[in-house]
TrEMBL record:
Signal peptide positions (record): none
Cited Gene3D superfamilies: alpha-amino acid ester hydrolase ( Helical cap domain) (1.10.3020.10), alpha/beta hydrolase (3.40.50.1820), Galactose-binding domain-like (2.60.120.260)
Species this chain originates from: Actinomadura fibrosa
Region span, Disordered: 366-412
Pfam families listed in its UniProt record: Peptidase_S15 (PF02129), PepX_C (PF08530)
GO MF annotation terms: hydrolase activity
Membrane spanning residue stretches: none
Domain Xaa-Pro dipeptidyl-peptidase C-terminal: 323-558
Name this protein carries in UniProt: CocE/NonD family hydrolase
Length: 580
């Protein structure tokens, strides 16, 4: 098994906060259940407050707002382990979930409800004057929704596998992220049913994939998956491309106006710590948030490990790093902070790298050209006809691996995919030295299609000496798109495709491989090729695709290459050996 399939966790010493006497035996705390918080429209949301024993004055507060429940196992994920270390925790159920009033409108109520909750928090006699926000995925999004307007009392944010906007994750490159959106909608639709919190995470993805493979129009898949229409899924379909470059987007709209907080990230003054995974569905936009903070002159911390979204392995790392962050910024113990703000794990090298910033200082972009006959290399393009393939949306090219919301996104062997006629494969010769690729990855392609509406998908793989070809990262683009640049008069288009960022070593003797295709089903819905509205399209038209790689059309993969600096390297400690 490849080393990047396994877990190394960074060591972080946990010191007891000053002024806190940790109780003997099991952690002790008191709980106030079902605290009512009235919203401006009169709806009442419920919250639980956990207070540690053994403190002499009200400790700082950690605020968590969640649609996934407040009790049982959810309490641990919501931050209960922080309480014995001298923090009080307030966990509130989002509108329309687990006892809170109103209707759950995913993404739509978090700013207004969150800010009203903050004002309520500030009025409580037990509020010490400072609070932080914490959470993964939707919980982190809810924290971003209030971050720019929460006031000076917000002193720290520690967020994981999340982003300030989920819009572009729903419409990846202008396509529709079918598997993730359908899975999450079914999950939240079922979670409050009897035993729903146990069964939905296990079954929702299976149901979604089965529905996606039915061949039915997208608008019917929510009923096929969950047995009833599901509002959020239908809303995403109706607003496909609104601000995301999709072909069937109507002007105006406004659905995303109150659901996208990426434009306010630079206004956030509270210190922010972000944790992500190389195979997480939200990683590109989490890094966009990091860059927005840096552009505004802030100094966020960033950790990226070899994890995916539902990977339980990042839980302990999230707790350790968040505890250090809250100790530093809510209790004033700056000794808890690590020296370098950016720490990333390099898969294939089995080591952590510490950097001052992201992308890593000293990174250089190398252009590896696609060659006729399936070659790939740094040498220039060659005179040759384009490579071609036929994409049939009625039998879409599958995705064997890659980021997914639920289930495993562990890299897999892509050789079955590479034997398909609708996948172009370009491979380098065996490497004569290790190649460390750390940073944003992109493709610059010159393409032609006989369809005005079509997709292009690019995937980067690592090929071992035994022939196993594991996916490293991927990305796609739906045409027509604003980024498209006409070339000449023969219908050739130049397209820029952003892949997922990565931190990966291609070891000596391995080969670098690139796929070019037009589908990644069911992760993204196939482009029907007709320009019909996404939700109701029934006609599927094959597309004849060409990829040019001659001197006038130098298609290439753009790799961010870094040199291994010994002072930046922290090997995985022996007690944290990667999992088999």
């Amino acid at each position: 098994m490849a080393p990047w399939d396994r877990l190394p966790a960074p060591p972080i010493r946990v010191r007891r906060p000053r002024g806190f006497r940790r109780p003997r035996g099991l952690p002790r705390y008191t709980v106030e259940r079902d605290l009512p918080v009235t919203m401006p429209d009169g709806v009442t949301l419920l919250a639980d407050r956990y207070v540690p024993t053994g403190v002499r004055r009200p400790p700082p507060t950690i605020l968590v707002r969640t649609p996934y429940g407040r009790r049982g196992p959810a309490a641990v994920l919501n931050g209960l382990p922080f309480v014995p270390f001298g923090f009080q925790l307030v966990v509130q159920s989002a509108r329309g979930t687990f006892g809170s009033g109103g209707e759950f409108d995913p993404l739509g109520s978090e700013r207004e409800d969150g800010l009203a909750t903050v004002e309520w928090l500030k009025r409580q006699p037990w509020f010490s004057g400072s609070f932080g926000t914490y959470g993964a995925s939707y919980l982190g999004y809810a924290a971003w929704a209030i971050a720019a307007e929460a006031g000076p009392e917000l002193k720290a944010m520690s967020l994981q596998i999340t982003a300030s906007s989920f819009r572009d994750a729903a419409y990846v490159g202008g396509s529709f992220a079918l598997e993730s959106t359908l899975t999450w909608t079914d999950l939240t639709h079922r979670q409050q049913q009897p035993f729903g919190m146990l069964t939905a995470p296990l079954l929702s993805r299976r149901r979604a994939i089965r529905a996606a493979q039915s061949g039915r129009p997208l608008a019917e898949l929510d009923v096929l998956t969950g047995g009833a229409p599901m509002r959020f899924y239908q809303d995403l379909l109706a607003n496909h491309g609104n601000g995301a470059g999709g072909p069937d987007a109507a002007p105006g709209g406004g659905y995303w106006d109150k659901r996208d907080f990426s434009g306010t990230v630079g206004e956030v003054t509270a210190p922010v710590s972000l944790l992500g995974g190389w195979y997480d569905v939200f990683l590109p936009w989490e890094l966009r948030d990091y860059l927005a903070l840096r552009s505004a002159g802030h100094h966020p911390y960033l950790t990226i490990g070899p994890w995916w979204h539902a990977d339980a392995r990042h839980g302990i790392v999230s707790f350790r790093e968040s505890l250090a962050w809250f100790r530093a910024h809510l209790r004033g113990d700056l000794r808890a902070l690590r020296r370098d703000p950016v720490r990333v794990y390099v898969t294939g090298a089995r080591e952590w790298r510490h950097y001052r910033d992201w992308p890593p200082p000293g990174m250089r972009q190398e252009r590896w050209h696609l060659h006729p006959g399936g070659g790939l290399g740094e040498d220039g393009p060659r005179d040759a006809p384009p490579s071609s393939y036929r994409f049939d949306p009625a039998r879409p090219t599958p995705a064997l691996g890659g980021p997914t919301l639920l289930g495993s996104s562990r890299p897999v062997d892509n050789r079955p995919l590479e034997r398909r006629a609708d996948v172009l494969v370009f491979s380098s010769p065996p490497l004569t030295a290790d190649l460390d690729v750390v940073g944003p990855v992109a493709a610059d392609l010159f393409v032609r299609s006989d369809r005005e509406h079509t997709d292009f998908v690019v995937r980067l793989c690592d090929v071992a000496p035994d022939g196993v070809s594991r996916n490293v990262c991927e990305g796609g683009l739906r045409l027509p798109a604003a980024a498209e640049k006409p070339v000449g008069t023969e219908g050739v288009r130049r397209v820029a495709i952003d892949l997922w960022p990565t931190g990966h070593r291609f070891p000596r003797g391995h080969r670098v491989r690139v796929h070019v295709t037009s589908g990644a089903h069911p992760k993204v819905a196939p482009n029907p090729g007709t320009g019909e509205p996404l939700a109701t399209a029934r006609t599927m038209v094959p597309a004849e695709q060409e990829v040019f790689h001659d001197p006038d059309h130098p298609s290439a993969i753009l790799l961010p290459v870094v040199e291994r600096s010994p002072e930046a390297v922290v090997p995985a400690p022996a007690e944290e050996e990667p999992l088999a």
